[in-house]
Amino acid sequence: MLHRVLREPLVHFLAAGGLLFAVYTLSPHLKATAPSDHTIVVDETALRNFLQYRSKAFETEYFTSELNAMTPEQRKELADQYVEEEMLYREARSLGLEQGDYVIRQRLVQKMRFLMDDLVNTGGAPDDVVLTDYLQRNRERYLVQPSTTFTHVFADASVRGDAAARTQAERLKAQLTAKHARFSDAPGYGDRFPFLQNYVERTADYIASQFGDEFVAALTKITPSERTWVGPIKSTHGYHVVLVTGRADGRLPALSEIRQQVQEDWALDRSERARAQAMKRLAGQYIVDRQTKP
Question: What domains can be seen in the chain, in order of their start residue?
Fold first, then answer.
């Protein structure tokens, strides 16, 4: 357990920071040779970091290439902007202007979070074995719900009245059956429906939101067919003659179908766990005196 803790990047970071502080404090030589607060070093790292913070994006390779692609004039202008900002920042800090400023406090907290994220996200990309295990352990997240493919012809009860709409639906069913109507023929029949006419691989929840639960219950009892029109089936809007051409059971997709999504979720979960562990270890270094009730 101790060996694993000692391998954690954040532990290394905190230990190194403490060591550097101790060495700097105890060594007069380092104090004497350290650059003063009025020395501004303009190098590749400073300019790249300046670009990143100004763009609010942290992509080292991208901004390195951007910096390398600049003309001498552009680099000079960038350096001048950096020096100006650095001078103003140092003068403001020397005057204590950052004290009591919540915006600055949040910026510092944000920078620390970025640093912690960089430290905990140093692992490589997961292989298929890791992702398959993650997919199985979180299968509920990726399950594809059962779905139905159907079309329908509508008789509007709000226009015709309930009894007349049912009678119209029965007539439509006879016409569709006699003409051996197909899925693509449905738009030539019936009243205008407020939603869709063709429903391809739609889940029960989606169908119920537009037709009602009674319609869905009847729909699930229909055997799929390319030519058999069924009805009238009542919905919250009227009556329908329905052609169900397909039904798919619920399933867990193969990793190859959703690999990118699974990898992104795995990485996010790993980051959140590592961040929580890092914060827990960090909290162990502080004493919290709670003088108010939670």
Answer: 2-124 (no CATH), 147-248 (3.10.50.40)
293 by DSSP, 3-state: which? Answer: coil
| 279: CB partners within 8 A, 6+ apart | 116
Residues 125-142: tens digit of each pLDDT: 888 999 999 999 999 999
- For 12-64, the three-class secondary structure string (H helix, E strand, C coil) is HHHHHHHHHHHHHHHCHHHHHHCCCCCCCCCCHHHHHHHHHHHHCCCCHHHHH
Segment 249-285, tens digit of pLDDT? 999 999 999 999 999 999 888 888 888 888 788 778 8
- Within 8 A by CB and 6+ apart from 225, the residues are 243, 244, 245
CA 55/CA 51 separation, integer angstroms = 6
Enter the pTM of the model.
0.54
pLDDT at 60: 82
Strand order in the sheet with 198-203: 198-203, 147-156, 238-248, 230-234
Query: Could you identify the residue written with the tokens 């229909």?
Result: 222
Q: What are phi and psi of 244, to 5 degrees?
A: -95, 120
